[in-house]
Amino acid sequence: MQGKVVLVTGAAQSQGQGHAIAMAEAGADVIAVDICRQLDIVPYPMGTPDGLAETARRVEALGRRVHTAQVDVRDRTELTRAVDAGVERLGRLDVAVANASICTVQPHDRVTDEVWQTTIDVNLTGVWNTCSAAIGHLTDTRGNIVIIGSTGSTVGLPFYTPYVAAKHALTGLCRSLALELADRSIRVNMINPTGVDTPQGHSKVLPALLASRPDLGPIFMNSLPVDRIDPADVTNALLYLASDDARYVTGVQLPVDAGSTIR
């Protein structure tokens, strides 16, 4: 990634922060964006201005440049403005990492209009907005897009209905953009992890829901003997897909799921 510039959404904490720092370690400058405020429907702590500042500090400590913006991926105009400003400052854009995501857990009959719409808006429209803001710049560098999906992009997950609906849709988005952008040598790929050891990956209500429906418990089991993977496992896959080592890899959904989707 030496000399390249990478956009990472949801960069104030967890996977997004790790992705940004790893890209800097590999030699990239970073455009780091995050909403930096709590959404009412989200039951775990989201990124903060201090978290985004910490991402910037750690990138700069590695000798790389960073441009940060507090922006909501649901706002296409503001996100495009932030990406354009980052490119103007850092000179180019080579990789867009559509990482920002939220998750709620509840039975289908407790999915409110707000839960449904907010989840779709962040997890699907937010990814589309990220791609849209990046594509013009990626055309100049023959860059690539990496979308962070989920096992929920491949299989159904009970009690995650809005989340799974959005993550399934990302598969179609990835494949369609990969086809349409191939003539510009822009690659588009996805990473589909199993549960990750982050605040989003630890639901406080899922155990009780599964206790009432023990028949559904095996759906959440991995084949390999781990409950969750580390954020670094997702980052390692990202570093491959974003790099020139994957120059002929496009339109794929790379599972990093400890074998959960082959069960």
Give an overview of the whole structure:
This protein is 41% helix and 14% strand. It is an alpha/beta fold. It has a single domain, classed as Rossmann fold. The chain has a seven-stranded parallel beta sheet with strand order 3-2-1-4-5-6-7, with helices on both faces. Helix 5 (161-181) links the parallel strand 5 (144-148) and strand 6. Helix 1 packs parallel to helix 2 and helix 1 (14-25) packs across helix 7. The radius of gyration is 17 Å and the shape is globular. The mean pLDDT is 97.
Oligomer: single chain
> Which structural class do you get from the secondary structure elements?
alpha/beta
Order of helices and strands: EHEHEHEHEHEHHE
Domain unit count = 1
Overall helicity: 40-55%
Number of H- or I-type helical stretches: 7
- End-to-end separation in angstroms reads 35 Å
CATH hierarchy, class: Alpha Beta
Largest β-sheet summary: 7 strands, parallel
CATH topology annotation = Rossmann fold
User: What general form does the structure show?
Assistant: globular
Measured by DSSP, the beta-strand proportion falls in 5-15%
Low-confidence segments, given as residue ranges, are none
Our Rg estimate from Cα atoms comes to: 17 Å
What spatial order of strands do you see in the largest sheet? 3-2-1-4-5-6-7
